[in-house]
Amino acid sequence: MTKPEPFGQGVRVLAIVALLAALAGLVVWAGASPAEPMEQEPPNEVEVEPDRGSYVGEDVILGGEVVETDPLVIATRASGYGQFTILVDGKTDRNVEGDLESGDQVTTYGTLEDEETLAAERVTVQNPSDTRYMMLVSLVGGLLVVGRVLRDWRFDLGRLAFVPRDRARPRSDDSSDSALGSGSGNARAQSDDGLEAPAGGDRGG
């Protein structure tokens, strides 16, 4: 017998709507917050490139493809436009050793000295193989989790909730029950025969 639920479906639906509304409100609030509690990120190439003069002297983040290596020049647009010269020295923090090559995808952070030059404090090289590996691992892990959930649970439209799937009893259990039943029947028959044997002997005497 199914145990009655303490709350009805209406309360569950209302709770789901309230949680979704709270989540949407938090997203809007976080996006509208100027600084704290989350630190605001510096402007990136999407904001800087169309109006470079407004960001001179500010810390910015520029991402793009290396088009020249001496000096280091990156293009923030796929067409090769939106180029910036990146000043790199011994104090610049880099995540890889060795020289950069044309075609490398990099993200740079530093101070925009003029409309075409960035004094970089940090240069990060993006490795495409690392990105593909991360995406592959995430995909496989997600599929395993979804498969496990779908195997053991189902969504009950009537109750608006996930419930365990009804599983048939394994055949081994049925065989064990049959064997136990047969054993009990044989034992009972033998017991009855044992009780009837003396009675037959008395009649014969």
Molecular structure report:
The chain is built from four helices and eight strands. It has 205 residues and is an alpha+beta fold. Among the domains are: 45-127, OB fold (Dihydrolipoamide Acetyltransferase, E2P); 130-155. Strand 2 and strand 3 (83-87) form a beta hairpin. The two termini are 59 Å apart.
How would the global form be characterised? Answer: elongated
CATH architecture call of the domain at 45-127: Beta Barrel
Give the C-level CATH assignment of the domain at 45-127. Answer: Mainly Beta
Helix content: 40-55%
Q: Kindly report the CATH topology of the domain at 45-127.
A: OB fold (Dihydrolipoamide Acetyltransferase, E2P)
Distance between the termini: 59 Å
Radius of gyration: 37 Å
Structural class: alpha+beta
The number of helices is 4
Total strand count, please? 8
Runs in which pLDDT lies below 50 for 5 or more consecutive residues are none
Averaged pLDDT, please? Answer: 78
Largest sheet: 5 strands, mixed, barrel
Spatial strand sequence of the major β-sheet: 1-2-3-6-5
Estimate what percentage of residues fall within beta strands.
15-25%
Q: Could you give the order of the helices and strands?
A: HHEEEEEEHEEH
Look at the structure and name the CATH superfamily of the domain at 45-127.
Answer: Nucleic acid-binding proteins
Keywords: Membrane, Transmembrane, Transmembrane helix
Transmembrane segments: 12-32, 133-150
Region (Disordered): 166-205
InterPro entries: OB_2TM
